[in-house]
Amino acid sequence: MKQSRKGRKTAGTLLTATLVGTMLLSACSNSGGSEKANESTGGDKASSGKASTLKVEVFDRGNSPAGSTITNNYLTKLVQDKFGTPNNINVQFVPIPRSEEVQKLNVLMASGSDVPDIVFTYDSGTFYRYAQQGGLTDLGELLDQYGPNLKKFLGEETLAYGQYQGKQFALPAKRSHLGKYSSFIRQDWLDKLNLPVPTTTDELYNTLKAFKEKDPGQTGGKVIPLGMALAPAQFEPLIWSFIKPVTEEQRYTLTQQLGSNDYPVLLPGFKDALQFMNKLYNEGLMSADFSLDEDKKKLGEDAAKGLIGFYSEDDMNPFYADGTYAMLQKNIPDAKLSAIDVYTNSEGKHPKPEYAPIGMYLMIPKSSKNAVEAVKYLDWMASGNNLFDMQNGVEGENYTLQNGVPIVKTDASDDVKNRIYNWGDMAIISNGKQLGDADKNVEAYVYGMPEAYQDETRKALTISRSDTIKPVLFDHPIEAQAKYGTALRDKLNEIIVKTTMAKPDQFESTYDSVMKDYMANGGQAILDERTKAYAEMKK
Q: What is the 8-class DSSP label of residue 283?
């Protein structure tokens, strides 16, 4: 989930600002809907016997099967039967087009009275903006009183991402798998050259040289020892492996968050990583046209044609049905791709970033009069087998269990499969299937891949969550990151391209020039603000 935001001062931006301002006025005018007011309202409804109406946002992707709608389907009925009716609550789902998520949510939030009781967004900036403007319910006491199961399920690490200046204004969905990247090598090439699997960066360099010199894939001189694209999955594992050990202060202040990713632009070792890429490029050991391949399309084509000996990628990406590995074996039946963990830092580890432990930000608007019911609903979802049933359907019909992991029945009828067509959008407290622990969650992904690739998928997923680097989290947004992040992400690409493709004797001057430009266009502003935020955090 990346769109360019150049020319941000547009009419759309002004509209968003207007809506946010209106939202603040709505929130203020509804400030009587405080937590205690919500609690007493819930009690009055219960004692009077009158049913409450709980409105919950749901993404509409336009993919409802025949006989179902996004607001009337197997899962909406399950929620009503298992949660709503026993608690004297009518649960209504409010559809929001997925492609217009933030725009539509802004309109609803600005309305005050028409906004659902539970809303959500993937965009951290939108969450922080609502929190700053006073438009969200403080969920701390409500979570303690009505959400013990939810609080336990999410855990402190996940909940921390929903806090603003020490208060719990959102309940982030819990991500089931935090791994991002793995690397892959042509094992059949190693076997042909009688070479061991490389385990360090130095060994990898020697392997890449052997691939170039001996062309074990008989590509007729088209061999690409290291496949590279101008995308995070390809260059991040390499770059992070060169970063030197840092203090907490350096990690907080020198890291640059551009968009949703942390980048080590100012951390010690970043320059060394770029110099290594420069060496690989000038020795003809990596993709010559990587700078034109931001969407990874050329990388995928080259890998499928059997031209690439080694590359990094999103953890299990090559192993999907009809994916890169399947296409490679279609073209070269004897080809064998193996997952490896090879880029090594000064401590002998294989560092790579991991995802933040969250998915969507679940929020209850300040204007809601049903905050108690909203927290109860999310707590119900986190209780017993409710989340499992929403994500997997009916045992024996939708799935069978194997070592505690649900295996989808591929021979199930369409009406059975369609029961849970929208489970990802209904089971909102989780991003991915939750089976009780990280290992089982990984197995769920493994069993979802073609059987022939499951062992390598398991290895790739294990690699992706080993020696990982957690994102840096402040308790409030860094304004300079929001202001300059998109433009600086383009500047980072420019740094990588220009330093990698420079002649070796021009590397130093090129590096100094592009870094000076980067800092002048927002990098320094982010550094200054993060330094100030860290100092305030440590008071």
A: T
